[in-house]
Amino acid sequence: MPRRQLHVTGAAEAPLRKALRALRTELDLPRGFPPDVLAEAEAAAKSPRPPGLDATDLPLFTIDPPGSVDLDQAMHLARRADGGYRVHYAVADVAAFVAPGGALDAEAHRRVLTLYLPDGRVPLHPPVLSEGAASLLPGQAAPALLWRIDLDAYGRRVAAEVRRALVRSRTRLDYATVQQHIDAGTAEEPLALLRDIGRLREELEVERGGVSLRVPEQEIVEADGSYRTAYRAPLPADGWNAQISLLTGMAAADLMIAAGTGVLRTLPAAPDGAVARLRRSAKALGVDWPHHVSYAELVRALDPRLPRHAAFLQDCTALLRGSGYTVFTDGNPPVPALHAAVADEYTHCTAPLRRLVDRYAGELCAAAVEGREPPEWVRAALAALPQEMTEGGRRANRVERECVDIVESALLMDRVGEVFTGTVVDVRDDDPATGTVHLESPAVVARLEGAGAPLPLGERLEVRLTQAFPGREKALFVPA
Q1: Are strands 157-173 and 53-54 parallel, antiparallel or unpaired?
Q2: What is the pTM (predicted TM-score) of this model?
Q3: Rounded Cα–Cα distance for residues 404 and 118 (Å)
């Protein structure tokens, strides 16, 4: 899912929305699904592959942003008699609807990921599935891969398995409602256990040396022909919910490693240069980062409700570059196999409605638990999956970058000629008079050129905006 989440509200048609529509054309993003794909999806929605287990009596609930209808996960939390916990986590069983080698399967391999733009998304699967039959909507019986993960009293995993099952979610919740009930003490079990388990898992993350970024959502609000930014800082409930997904991804990785066949999500440790750049960004934003404090400690101490911290957390996503997918089929998992941010073996398996690889990871885990070989269609696709996901990720990243440029230009278009204060956070090696400036307000990172002399890396600078028009001119600054 996107590293920077941008949403547009208001009725602005020009120029921001026009630029976003033009971007879809420029990048040749899909506008709809071919007729044969839609026909196959309609048929599959009416007759998915039936699971062997009926678990519709399990009172699952979902937690998603308000208005979401593509619901990948539902959960139920309970206490165990020995003082530990039991997590039931249902993940949409997309493979129950998608026939290997069919038109629907081929289209998913072309799209790879759901793409997110400020004015909407480009889905991986047709809405009849992703927002209908395959979604874990409340009151609807749907096939799922149902995880059962047992934890001890400290939140450590002691057992995990996954089975195909028919499930029925009871309640659709959003993060703000969950947080309100938990803070007020009105949340009953199983919801109340989300805080208990989430906090235990967060403590274990610290112990492992992992780090979770609490990146705020940035909303672009139109008013009287101009734009302003607003942030929604993630709530503690966002993090607790994410810990359940991470728990499942780590359990899935261990199952695949034990079985000898799998696909892991891997991330190398960040190079020193990337961390050094991030320290410059911290200085630019007035974020205190003592040299004896690690990156993980700093991130955990940040408050995403503060604008400068919110902007810095956006910059922190740069350390996620280099992540990829690694396949193994010979019983020997890759070395190293860790995801640096998770600080453990990990895989993507909890968002199959929106990410192609998750469907394959789910199949591999189900086969591992049943003690059988993975289906041939899974094994045949594994070798190409990392490259497919890499190319899909590149397209998603470009969409994100272009959207950020468009949004920042929209924010600044009426301020061309004004002088701002910023800090030089990057300088090109081949042209030290060209680099990147991070403004103090608004929180914009943009190109800086025309200095005529090497830019003062890491220093504050007065800069003048020379151009900004969404979709036509990216924000550009020169030293004032």
Answers
A1: parallel
A2: 0.90
A3: 9
- What is the pLDDT at residue 229? 65
402-455 confidence digits (pLDDT tens) = 988 888 898 899 899 999 998 887 788 889 899 888 887 787 888 999 767 888
What is the C-alpha to C-alpha distance for residues 30 and 180, in angstroms, rounded to an integer?
39
* Strand ranges of the sheet holding 226-232, from the earlier edge strand across to the other edge: 5-9, 217-223, 226-232
- Tokens 């959502």, located at residue: 217
Backbone φ and ψ of 218, nearest 5° = -105, 125
Residue whose entry in the numeric block shows the structure tokens 């992992």:
210
Alpha-carbon torsion, ordered 183, 188, 192, 193, to 10 deg: 170
Q: What is the pLDDT at residue 3?
A: 45
**Tokens (6 digits) for 391:** 């190319």
pLDDT in tens, 203-256: 999 999 998 888 877 666 666 666 666 667 899 999 999 999 999 999 999 999
Q: How far, in Å, CA of 145 to CA of 25, rounded?
A: 37
Asked if pLDDT for residue 306 goes beyond 90, the answer is: no
Query: What is the spatial distance between Cα 116 and Cα 122, in angstroms, rounded to a whole number?
Result: 7
Query: In this structure, which long-range contacts are made by residues 98-105, counting pairs with CB atoms below 8 Å and at least 24 apart in sequence?
Result: 98/44, 98/125, 98/359, 99/40, 99/44, 100/375, 100/377, 101/377, 102/40, 103/34, 103/36, 103/37, 103/39, 103/40, 104/37, 104/40, 104/41, 104/44
Q: What does the angle CA 399 – CA 403 – CA 409 come to, to the nearest 5 degrees?
A: 150
